[in-house]
């Protein structure tokens, strides 16, 4: 097995930079084959530094010239050590001039400066700036930037960078220039430039202070008709941040640029946000309701970074969740507020929790487990994870739960008052929350330093004579790599109690005044076990536990089926109403899975669905609930969620059991499902508003259930919707229903779809993904699709749409008993690593929990992992994931 020798970087080894950078002047002569970069840095000795040695970082960049205070530095005056350049014995004040040469068109990593479809783009987070020039490339080195861009005017008529456009003009040789100044201090990871043939949509807004700002969304020609929703989302984000947190846009100009080749979703470069086209381009013809919602969320996320990430940034990359977890929380709250209704907000909360449970909980339970604030890493790109983002968001949400909405706002205000313009730590944020709220949050720090998902077990006791009800909460957290024992967390547990009538009971803790008692209480669990006693509880209530999913924990309580059905029908907390239904469905699905494992015949009577279907009837008929909420209730737990409930995962059996239950529900609820399809049509012009999107979602989930019946009526229903669809949401849902049936027109529909949309890359991504996740698609079919002329490994979106979708979204086929899926995975991981290590490392995560699968699958997964490990010249990104996956500890 290959062992990577790259040393781990430790949080405990943090030291302030020896030199600070006050100003950065950059000059770019842009050419795809050979771009020349000139940098002038004014630097000064940091009083907190340890020495007078300047340390610069570079990666795959040619050093052409180096001068200090006007004098060329010979090779003897500095030391190159891998990707580091050391200049010892530097004076206290330094002007450093650096010239480098780059080959952007050969840069397939999509980090640093690269070319996409003939245009120049940059991606500098986390360590991409060192691919442009030698620099103290770390987030706690903040400077003001002035950028001169020069390029051929015909090929690159648009020249953009951070901040304000100061000057532009012709150079007289067919080239032109643009000079940009950013008025704010920023770290190098927030630098950006864009050059090429682009067009933009513009809008001017006036802010509460009276300042005007120019908003621009830049895209390639031919895509201007797909920018309105992104612009609307940007305006809504700005207005929301003003209203919710009192934060104004601080720039005269704010730009979004869309690019088709991008490793991530988007990047918050100060004033010049660069986005994956997936999160900008939308119109009814090409984008689904989910696309519209994702664009709104991602535009909001990157805009909110303007304050939580840019104005206040992270001291080092171990503090990454300081900006990402906080900003995910902000974008989640923004999206929920855009919906407005209680059950609509609950749908957003459910979506967020499903991501956490399906992706982050498994990460916490696997070899890549790490705290929200990691202690070490080999390659920082591997730590842009669901733990940093989604669990980090839940940690921020717990502050709001503990302090209240107003208390959280006070904490945010104090945070900006103390740290605007600084690079700080997660502890600084926690201190602002504690001081503003007058709370001791020392124990809360464990959410940052301890990995793993806590388990909270609940026991209850009702004393009829005394009229008391005890809730005993106990917490534990399993070992994770490098952390065998865990101290108790500070866990806010929201609870309610329901009377037999379904009404919420007033909650009075023993010793409290009963006047104006709330019906939801936050119990703060800080010990290994605590008991909370409520008084005035006459009849035995049904507890509603962890309302609104108030902490990222696994809750264990032995509800009866009747209690779950009661909560599903009556709970005033919409999240727990949905949760009760998921628990009921999960019980049935796990029972069916065991029957498949034991080769017992599955029959309608053994499924025991009466209690579940009875409450489904009631929920689906409740017109007071948002259609989107009823869609959520009707959606069964995913195969991935079911796998997480099993000690040994058997993907084929899970798939068989879930499909059996889907068909059974389709037969049982056929009349209601047909009625849902009829009642939730959305005639007229398409609108992505929450109500219309909810109706389409409910209608389409009903249609997909009906497609399980695979008869002529359901074939005709799907075919009619496909033929008549006026928007992508309905068209792709109908196509999916056809592909998962034996309908005679399914192949024709697939071919027609491709022909109609072959010039729309984002739609063709959907076309690949739909086939990759079909239960009919095996490894041979995926290999055939990879030979399709529209497929390219070099485009991350296209690789994700086919390869990732198959490996991560089609478990029954990927985990084929013959191991063909694992051999395919190994080939693609190795091939991608030579092109784009970040994308390769993310695909490698598919097998990081191989030890949890059945022994026959385990051995084949291990063989595939070892094959990758034995490959020479793996990237640091991939090596770290593979080595941790195979590690015995």
UniProtKB/TrEMBL annotation:
Residues 230-447 form the Peptidase M1 membrane alanine aminopeptidase domain. Residues 452-558 form the Peptidase M1 alanyl aminopeptidase Ig-like fold domain. The keyword Plastid does not apply. Its cofactor is Zn(2+). CDD domains: M1_APN (cd09600). It is an enzyme of class 3 (hydrolase). Residues 561-887 form the Peptidase M1 alanyl aminopeptidase C-terminal domain. Gene3D superfamilies: 2.60.40.1840, 3.30.2010.30, Neutral Protease Domain 2 (1.10.390.10), Peptidase M1, alanyl aminopeptidase, C-terminal domain (1.25.50.10), tricorn interacting facor f3 domain (2.60.40.1730). Residues 90-190 form the Aminopeptidase N-like N-terminal domain. It holds the Pfam family DUF3458. Its EC number is 3.4.11.2. The keyword Kinase does not apply. One of its GO terms (molecular function) is aminopeptidase activity. It catalyses: Release of an N-terminal amino acid, Xaa-|-Yaa- from a peptide, amide or arylamide. Xaa is preferably Ala, but may be most amino acids including Pro (slow action). When a terminal hydrophobic residue is followed by a prolyl residue, the two may be released as an intact Xaa-Pro dipeptide. Keywords: Aminopeptidase, Hydrolase, Metal-binding, Metalloprotease, Protease, Zinc. NCBIfam families: pepN_proteo (TIGR02414). Belongs to the peptidase M1 family. This is Aminopeptidase N. It comes from Noviherbaspirillum suwonense.
